[in-house]
Amino acid sequence: MFKYVMKRLGIIVFTLILIISATFFLMKLMPGSPLANAERLSGDQQRLIEAQYGLDKPLLVQYWNYLVNALHLDFGTSFQFQGQPVSTLIAQRIGPSAQLGIQAIVFGVIAGIGLGAAAAVRRNTKTDTALSILAVLGISVPSFVVAALLQYYIGLKLDWLPIAGWEGFAYTILPTIALGLQPLAISARFIRTEMVEVMGSDYIELARAKGLSRSEIVWKHALRNSLIPLVTLIGPMAVNLMTGSIVIEQIFTIPGIGSQFVNSILTNDYPVIMGTTIVYSMMLMVVLLITDVVYGLIDPRIRLAD
Amino acid sequence: MKKLTKNIALLSAGLATAGALGTVSADAAKYKTIRWSQSDILSSMDPSKTTTNIDFTAITATGDGLYRANQKGDFVLSAADSVEESEDGLTNTFKLKPDLKWSNGDPLTAHDFVYGWQRTNDPKTASQYAYLYSGINNADAIQKGDEKDLSKLGVKALDDQTLQVELEKPMPQLKSILANAPFFPQNEKFVKHAGKKYGTAAKYTLSSGPYKMKKWSGSSDTYTLVKNKNYYDADVVKTPKIKMATVKEQNTGYNLYKSNKLDYTTLSPEQVKKAKNTKAYRTIPEATTAYLQLNEKKVKAFKNTKVRQAFSYAIDRETFADKILTGSATPAKTFTATKLVKDPNTGKDFAKSAAVKGVNTYNLKKAQKLLKQGMKEAGVKKIKVQMLTDDTSGAKRSAQFVQSQYEKLDGVKVTIKTVPFKQRINLSEKRDFDMVVSLWGADYADPSTFLDLYKSDSSFNEGGWKNEEYDQLLDDAANKNVNDPKARFKDLTKAEQILDKEAGLVPLYYRSQAALQRTSIKHMVTNTSGASFDWKWAYKK
Amino acid sequence: MAEQATGLTAEGFDFIPMDRAMTAEKIDRPALSFRQDAWRRLKKNKGALVSFWILIIVFLFAFLSVPYANPKTTSHQDVMQQNLPPKLPGNIPGLRGETVVDGEKIDAYADAGLPKDVYHPFGTDEFGRDLFKRVLYGTRVSLEVALIAALIDLVIGITFGMISGWMGGRVDLVMQRIIEIVSSIPNLVVFVLLILIMKPGMFSIALGIALTSWVTMARLVRADVLSAKEQDYISAARTLGSSSWWIGLKHLLPNMSSTIIVQLMFTIPSAIFFEALLSYMGLGIPVPMASLGTLLNDGQKVFQFYPYQLIIPAIVLSVIMIAFNLLGDGLRDAFDPRTRD
């Protein structure tokens, strides 16, 4: 196990280097200067600014410096936020995004398990169809539509929950629901398929033959065994959440990393774009690694190759 | 889950009254917290390094210049008590108000102005607004690096309370620019102590204005302004606290306003249609003009005056402003925006008195006729051009309407290219476009802030239109007639009219901001150049 | 008892034909090819079947409406007819072109001073453009983007997966690492970087989507190739001296078709969905073109005032998404011999 994790960490570092290199050179291709009023700056001022950001050095030197610094989590200083290190900017904003992401996964997975299990138990009935459609709805209406509707009806019309902002748990509920619909749909469908398969397997037949009650079979045997592979879905879910959070953060005015990313694109703030990209990838790879390790730990059938 | 927030709100309100029993000052009870919203995030509180309008507003709330725009929009002395102007208009001697203080209690002296100004002009600071200093002695030379000695800048502290400003040439816009953030004093000790972090978070800011900055991490979406007791004019400042939120989605802002969580929100055209009959509705002029630049270097036909005129006559600006951009635009007949400055010759708004009748209006027949003649003269059969614009929803809206207007012209085919703001700027700079929708906001209250852009040697003249008479008139306005406002405005009026008649560019609309602002807020000041809002006198009952 | 047994006569017996072994083992189901079998099972799945026909109808509407809903007609503006609610001939509730102003129902069409015979079944947008045409056109554009993306996805995914699975060894190892790397970059980030450099448009959006989604296809194809490689018919083909390319094309590809088809049923809707999300960020299909995503995004901005501008494209999108998903599920079950009933 230890060897496996070390090997995976090695791959992560290697991948990071590739990603850093790719984003670095892509940024160099991007049109547009990050400076405001660039036309009104004298040649000297422009040169000084470039020197401040290390842009006066040869490309390869710039690249090497960036790579070395980036591996130490130093992504330079923002163009837009004068004098602010990118790592500080990201650190200040990662909290709300992470909290929202975790809440959305927890909510989505739990609700999804419930829906999926209910559908599987009543397989091929109207309830099953209704639940399936409900689950698919979660991935057929874009989150920005769901978010806007929730905000308007639950926030404004019914006045049950705050419309927008980030000042306490109540403020996180609507965004969590909007963001959690996709994990909900994914896990509900997954659990249903798995459980239908498990319910038809021999050991469930055996349990039935032993005279175990229906609920006992469903909860103790079928569901439990269906849950294990669900862990593998957390990775792809995390990817979707990162995308979704950009929209949700904007609509609910959440001070997270997603809205920052959009902002940095609009203002050509290269250091922030690069920093965010790298942090996003890093988080994703760590999540993938953790899910693989957890999966190996809880499912004895899987043995992680050393 | 029901009524969750309400309960929480009630609970905290109960706690607050219990805890603060008897300690609430009369002021705080009388004047409520103002809850404002901004459409983008605050990026810097360093007066030398600021780059956006949003920054200007926050810095103006926490700072004070020699002048400040008052509630009528006139620039009146603020930190300065009096000013003496030399006969040639090149030397201004300001006497500061006595006992000015920084928010930390330090005395605020003329040296703080000198330091702030020198810091902004120092090429090492790389201030992106230093160009506003152009005209002040040696400012250009210092910024270019030709003059290394910062003390040669035309500003001197004769004593702690006297500031002398020397100019290379008369600057009609002087009062207006002195009220802007890059001309505010800076506390040398504080700035040096904060070092690189100066202006990057609330604790690295020092106030010389009506409010102090609180709860701002440098990248947070919200910040709070609280009254600065050390401000010389603190007696007039009534509001104890202003809370700012960044709201990028207009639907969110509208919902927050309706549920009484915000006191101010900007409106989209559809929201305007619903809200314009309410008392809280207002439009805030911005002295910003949206205009089309026609690239004469890239599209041969645009060299022809008739073709350019046709492109102006083809646009129904009334419908554009009323139906499409509802609330956020008025039809533009001139390049210089309205509500910027009054013409001393007529006493009327410059843009209105300079507008030429029948120019920059909608006349499809005339457009078609001119286009036909123009294309013949230019020897082209078809004009196929790409219109460059921003990728915001507002810009897309405008572009689609303009495109549909040109669809009606025979022989013209317009396609749209949308790019992020900074890319549009960059492509415009490189003259890499056929036609571009540009916006220009006034730097100061004078027509030259617009008209100078289209001098033939100006780097902002991206269309490439040239007219010798135009250049000459602007040259006269800047030099020969600079001390004679009437003659100067005659030159400027004539220049504006030449630009409009020749269709050197195609003005589309003057931008304004449609908004809902709670009627309980009084004495809010809005400016068309520099800081958009000033809360110095504002209060909410 | 014995007498009774002898009651059997010669007439009671039949001649057994020569091929009796066949009859003995005769399966009571008709002999079906794999595809026929799958189709038969698909037909039993009502949800999937309905979805199948819905999709056929959507495609027909979207692609046959070109003369009616094309870039020219859908970008035609008439500001007089701004934001009109849906109206159809006949007095159908909800489609009378009525709007509520200050608690009173008024005829928005009459209010705009339009003649009686003006109808917009889905209403109009802020420019007075007919939304029925725009939804048809937008659906077509969305489907086109998704199909192009699926095609690119298919080509890259299959090629990559087949080479990786077939070659095995070091090649496979390296190619697996590449897949790992690609899938650990957030797709939105890749997409945004790509779109910022390329010219915005239908193809670049489709390419962006495909570049971020081919990994799943490659993985599935590789797994299929790995299991097929061990099977006798492949070894037989090899022994007979067929080239790798020939085996890949002639034997492997047809056998993987079910995996590929099922995967496509999920790629297409997710591409449509992703495009919608990009529209929200202003990175979707450029104006004045429309896609379901841009229509939804425009609708979302005004839904408090003109709810139909959001609801209609939302329903169309949801129906397409649900249909693809149910059909995909149905196909997967149908292709999977284990679920044979």
UniProtKB/TrEMBL annotation, chain A:
Principal location listed in the UniProt entry: membrane
A Pfam family: BPD_transp_1_N
Residues annotated as transmembrane: 100-121, 133-154, 169-191, 227-252, 272-298
GO biological processes: transmembrane transport
Subcellular location: Cell membrane
InterPro entries in the record: BPD_transp_1_N, MetI-like, MetI-like_sf
Homology family: Belongs to the binding-protein-dependent transport system permease family.
Protein species of origin: Weissella halotolerans DSM 20190
GO cellular component, one term: plasma membrane
Membrane topology field: Multi-pass membrane protein
Protein's name in the database: ABC-type dipeptide oligopeptide nickel transport system, permease component
Gene3D superfamilies xrefs: MetI-like
Domain ABC transmembrane type-1 per the UniProt entry, residue ranges: 94-295
Keywords: Cell membrane, Membrane, Transmembrane, Transmembrane helix, Transport
From TrEMBL, chain B:
Top-rank taxon: Bacteria
InterPro entries registered for this protein in UniProt: Peptide/Ni-bd, SBP_5, SBP_5_dom
Annotated GO MF terms: peptide transmembrane transporter activity
Tagged with keyword Transport: yes
One cellular-component annotation, GO: ATP-binding cassette (ABC) transporter complex
Record localization: Cell envelope
Family annotation (SUPFAM superfamilies): Periplasmic binding protein-like II (SSF53850)
Cell inner membrane as UniProt keyword: no
GO BP annotations listed: peptide transport
Record's keyword terms, sorted: Peptide transport, Protein transport, Signal, Transport
Segment forming the signal sequence: 1-28
Pfam families attached to this UniProt entry: SBP_bac_5
Start and end residues of each Solute-binding protein family domain: 78-460
Family: Belongs to the bacterial solute-binding protein 5 family.
Protein name: ABC-type oligopeptide transport system, periplasmic component
Biological source species: Weissella halotolerans DSM 20190
TrEMBL record, chain C:
Cellular localisation: Cell membrane
Family matches, as PROSITE patterns: ABC_TM1 (PS50928)
Keyword Metal-binding tagged: no
Transmembrane stretches, start-end: 48-69, 145-166, 260-285, 305-328
Membrane topology (UniProt): Multi-pass membrane protein
Database matches in CDD domains: TM_PBP2 (cd06261)
Record keywords: Cell membrane, Membrane, Peptide transport, Protein transport, Transmembrane, Transmembrane helix, Transport
A GO biological-process term: peptide transport
Pfam families recorded: BPD_transp_1 (PF00528), OppC_N (PF12911)
Residues covered by the ABC transmembrane type-1 domain: 139-328
Cellular component, GO, one term: plasma membrane
Protein family per UniProt: Belongs to the binding-protein-dependent transport system permease family. OppBC subfamily.
Entries under PANTHER family matching the protein: OLIGOPEPTIDE TRANSPORT SYSTEM PERMEASE PROTEIN AMID, OLIGOPEPTIDE TRANSPORT SYSTEM PERMEASE PROTEIN APPC
The protein's name: Oligopeptide abc superfamily atp binding cassette transporter, membrane protein
Protein species of origin: Weissella halotolerans DSM 20190
